[in-house]
Amino acid sequence: MNPSASVTSPRQGSAAVGVSVEGLSKDFSGFPVLRGISLTVNPGEIFVLMGPSGSGKSVLLKHVVGLERPSAGRVLVDGHDAADPATRGRVRMALVFQAGALFNSMTVYDNLALYPREHRLGTEAAIRDKVMRSLQMLSLENAAGKVPAELSGGMRKRVAIARALVMEPQLMLYDEPTSELDPVMSATISEVIATLREQYHVTSIVVSHDRDLALGIADRVGILMGGRLVSLGPPADLRAPSDPRVADFLNPSIDLRNPRFRRLAG
Amino acid sequence: MAAETSNPPEENESILTSAPRQAVRPFLRVLEGIGSCLRLLLEAARHIPTLPRQFGRFIEQCYLIGYTTLPIVAILSFFIGSVLALQSGYAAANIGPKQFIGLLVGLSMARELGPVMAAVLLAGRVGSAIAAELASMKVYQEIDALETMNIPPARMLVLPRLAAVLAMMPVLTIMSDLVGWFGGAIVAKYTHFISIEPASYFATMRQYMDFGDVLNGLVKAEIFGFAVVLVCCNIGLNTRGGPREIGASVTRAVVTSLILILVLDYFVTKALM
Predict the structure, then answer these.
(1) Closest-CA residue of chain A to B153
(2) How far apart are CA A58 and CA A130, in angstroms?
(3) Domain spans in chain B, listed from the N-terminal domain onward
(4) Which of A9, A41, A118, A227 could in theory staple to A47 by disulfide, Cβ–Cβ 3.0 to 4.6 A?
């Protein structure tokens, strides 16, 4: 991995954007998933969103990128309503999906080249240059001709990040970027996220269960539980949380005499 | 106790109100499907100006829809033409007008069986593949990835397929007509109780048929093919759930396409008369 390698210079007029979530609620078939979430992510910030599985983190992320429509409230990206499809034309947003969401019928190279080709962002030679530099940054040069089925889980994540990088995004969203990765690869992905912010001042929202990632690179951390934002503050707060639910989530103890599943059942 | 006695009327009421709802649900689903297809069509039509720069995808789809379907259309049409000649020869054996077998096979293939069989094979071979591919892309979030990249799926995935089916259906239908006619001619010559020379077989065809009959079939084929591809794209793109739903979407796409072909066949035939 070569985080210091220069990928490409940010496009003219490119600037990090802020995100404002205002009273966001979402129901699926009457079942509330998000309940009145309000938060602001500042331009250039790395905001890490943590919480137990099923707490609504990924759903919140999908609202930011406009893949879900709110039941109530709204999400503003650089002042534009995220639910409006036109916002994706005004603000360059990239979402790194948990499973990569790579195009399985295309090679890694074509996966990366799709965005600039479709938006006609240069000649084929210029696109090739940009794609190869993105692959180089994530040490994926040798994978350019492979199809996603030939890649390991860690490589798929890196290809997904490289594909997002080619878009020169103003807002990067990561859905569980370190899940299913070994500790070294997790640390590497965290370094890549931090490096991208340093080099391009891109705003980053990272959904993760990874406490080390949050402590290592976040400017602020929000914790979602049961669809509500129960904690919001600097990562240092994670070391001594005041809320017992947050403390249990971040430092779960293993009690074989009184296991959690029995306590919950009782 | 009071609470228990108050429950049954509520249940009865819900049964009464839900029964009509259950009855109209299939109709609502059909209307939803039609609306969803029309929305997808309008969305794809909005991107028609991008078609020239999607020429590569258009050619790729022409290959998949046309070239790879052609052999099976030819084989099936040959035997349909043969069976038509055989059955009409069997029926005509007692009456006498065997010379009209050529006309019967010619008209049946051109106006009805050519376009219908080409569309049915399109639904089974191409429609199922389209539904499976798009459903898989939806389930594995590739469609979501396209949307976040501001690349409309209707532009990249639907428009080239619709354009390709419009280009390829006439080819498939004409091939179906020709092979069916020749299948009928061979059977008419070599079946002992028919024994009509190909010259006589094709002479009646030329005498009583005109280009309008072939054109009629081509118009029908265009409508069927377009509808099949649109429906299969729509079902694939609206797949929800996990891998199991991919199979369910393929089944739904093929069954809906076959029903649609036969329903449209009646109305289009009536409209073209």
Answers:
(1) A118
(2) 30
(3) 40-272
(4) A41
Q: Is B141 on the interface with A (CB under 8 A)?
A: yes
Helix axes A108-118, A124-137, angle to 10 degrees: 130
CA pair distance B45, A65, nearest whole angstrom: 25
- Selected residue of B57, B137, B148, B237 to mutate for chain A interface (largest A Cβ count, 10 A): B148
Q: What phi-psi label fits residue A66: left (phi over 0), alpha (psi between -120 and 50 degrees) or beta?
A: left
**Does any CB of chain A come closer than 8 Å to the CB of residue B148?**
yes
A66 vs B contacts (CB less than 8 Å): 147-148
ipTM above 0.90, yes or no: no
For chain A, the straight-line distance linking the first and the last C-alpha, in angstroms and rounded, comes to 48
Burial B34-56 (b: 16+ CB within 10 A, else e): eeebeebbeebeebeeebeebee
Residue A102: closest C-alpha in chain B = B142
* B112 and A CB contact within 8 Å: no
b/e map of B183-218 (b: 16 or more CB within 10 Å)? Answer: bbbbbbbebeebebeeebbbebbeeebeeebbebbb
**Domains identified in chain A and CATH numbers:** 19-92+168-265 (3.40.50.300)
Supply φ then ψ for residue A97, to 5 degrees: -70, 155
DSSP B1: -
Residue keyed to tokens 């080239």:
B160
DSSP 3-state assignment of A206? strand
Which regions of chain A are under pLDDT 50? 3-13
Please give the DSSP secondary-structure letter assigned to residue A147: -
- Show pLDDT as tens, one digit a residue, over chain B (273 residues): 333 344 444 445 555 556 777 788 888 888 999 999 999 999 999 999 999 999 999 999 999 999 999 999 999 999 999 999 999 888 887 776 777 889 999 999 999 999 999 999 999 999 999 999 999 999 999 999 999 999 999 999 999 999 999 999 999 999 999 999 999 999 999 988 888 899 999 999 999 999 999 999 999 999 999 999 999 999 999 999 888 999 999 999 999 999 999 999 999 999 988
The two three-digit tokens of residue A44, written as one number: 């250039």
For an interface test with B, which of A115, A168, A174 has the most B Cβ atoms less than 10 Å from its Cβ?
A115
Task: Find the residue in A nearest to B146 (Cα).
Answer: A115
CA atoms of B151 and A87, how far apart (whole Å)? 13
From the list B137, B144, B150, the residue facing A67 with the nearest CB is B144
Tokens standing for residue A112: 């990366």
Q: At what angle do helices B159-190 and B114-121 cross, to 10 degrees?
A: 130
Task: Give yes or no for A171 touching B (CB within 8 A).
Answer: no
Q: Do residues A27 and A72 lie in contact, with contact meaning Cβ atoms separated by under 8 Å? A: no
| pLDDT number for residue B5 | 40
Paired residues of A224 in beta bridges: A229
Look at residues A119, A139, A116, A135 and name the one whose alpha carbon lies nearest to residue A127.
Answer: A116
Q: Residue A174 is which amino acid? A: Y
